[in-house]
Amino acid sequence: MSIDIDSPYAVSDGQVARFASDGFIRLKDVFDAETLAHFGRAITEQTIALNTQTLPLEERSTYDKAFLQVMNLWREDETTREFVFGKRLAGIAARLLQVEGVRLYHDQSLYKEPGGGITPAHADQYYWPLSSDRTITAWVPLQAVPQDMGPLAFFKGSQHVEFGRDLGISDESEAAITADMERHGFPIVDGAFDLGEVSFHLGWTFHRAGPNRSHDPRSVMTVIYMDRDMVLKAPENDQQRRDWDKWCPGAEIGRIIDTPLNPVLFEA
Questions:
Q1: Alpha helix (H) residue ranges in 168-261
Q2: What does the record list as coiled-coil region(s) (predicted)?
Q3: Does some domain include residue 77?
Q4: Residue 84 within a domain
């Protein structure tokens, strides 16, 4: 069996430049089928065991219809910890961010159930009390994601847009952000993911996903990285205050976020 999460993945200068311009990139063959199957079993088991959502889909909010979400699985299971701490993903993240090293912000599994709704347009960094834009999310499908399963889609070049940064995931964000993107001509890049393909996007890149019209769950693991030298900023909303307490407890405003929950995962 071929299990490899630590060997380097070559990212070209052109890919780094494209990521800086577009705010996201999709990379082929980051992991092979055996590696995804091995870690996917553990991630799925933990997601099912730790999920607290019990309402039927029709009774949930738009946010809760989008996916089952379980965070910081690395603290619950050694196999999942091995995946989250893998150097291949972290090395790609550091290369794309053009920083010397990256820390873990947190991980989260995102399982869009059969019949699950859209993931409304949003930018992740609305939720994060982080002082710079050197943040990146690796979106790792644990299987191929055809169009009818709701693959992640990106508004190309939107990472510099200020409008919509004060909106959490909601019906309002879907309507307002999508309209603003269309008004300013930011194209949406949407399409199926091959097995082993992984996307990376900046914290301020606007993105969304369609519903899962298939009969299978869309199983995805994400790892959120930040610059090794990221400083905690004063929270600007209640979500950021909660994130401070939950994902970087003990960190101090104006200082590097160096807590036991935010280890350095890669240094050049």
A1: 171-184, 238-247
A2: none
A3: yes
A4: yes
Helix intervals (H) in the chain? 13-22, 33-50, 62-66, 78-84, 87-97, 171-184, 238-247
User: Of 28, 29, 39, which is closest to residue 1 (Cα–Cα)?
Assistant: 39
Phi first, then psi: give them for residue 251, nearest 5 degrees: -65, 150
Sign of CA dihedral 149, 47, 58, 139: negative
Mean pLDDT of 116-143: 97
Burial class (CB in 10 A: 0-12, 13-18, 19+), 49: exposed
The mean pLDDT value for 111-135 works out to: 97
Q: Where are the beta strands (DSSP E) in 130-172?
A: 135-141, 152-155
pTM (predicted TM-score): 0.96
Closest-CA residue to 8 (of 105, 95, 80, 101):
95
Closest CA to 137 of 84, 100, 181, 192: 84
Query: pLDDT tens-digit profile of 203-254?
Result: 999 999 999 999 999 999 999 999 999 999 999 999 999 999 999 999 999 9
Structural domain tally of the chain?
1
Burial of 58 (0-12, 13-18, 19+ CB in 10 A): exposed
196, 28 Cβ separation under 8 angstroms? yes
Domain coverage including residue 231: 13-267
As a whole number of angstroms, the distance between CA 174 and CA 63 comes to 11
Chain mean pLDDT for the chain? 96
Mean pLDDT, to the nearest integer, of 129-151? Answer: 98
What is the arithmetic mean of pLDDT over 28-57? 94
